[in-house]
Amino acid sequence: HHASELKRKLGLSPLSEIKQNITKSWQDVQTSNAYLSASATLDDIASSEVYKKTQETLSQAGQKTSAALSTVGTAISRKLGDMSSNYSIRHSISMPTMRNSPTFKSFEDKVGNIKYKVVGGKANGESAHSPNESNPVQDNAPF
User: Fold this and answer.
1) Is 53 left (phi over 0), alpha (psi -120 to 50) or beta?
2) Distance from chain centroid for Cα 98
3) In terms of CB atoms within 10 Å, which end of the chain has fewer, N or C?
4) What are the pLDDT digits (tens) for 39-62?
């Protein structure tokens, strides 16, 4: 208890002790023979002609690849732009042809049936049952 009280008065906290230990350990690593030998080897490699040529070649290859990919991207964007500006409904199917198709007729009939069941026979303020209709058809379907 006395030692921890002295450390506290000197401003030494557990965190500052860890920091000091890490700093001391790093200094020990940097002055070790293994570190100094590896560092010298890496310096030798970095200053070698083979390393410099490889670095230059890879740099040029990266620049050329980047330029090529940019060109491809521009071409694709241009082609997509051309395709979207040339497209119109005339190219897909004409409206009269579509309206006369069996699929459209079937869809139109279903929508009409749903409208009749929801709204009834009303049109422009008429009542749900027309005066001509004596016995309206009852249908218990949800739509």
Assistant:
1) alpha
2) 37
3) N
4) 999 999 988 999 999 999 999 999
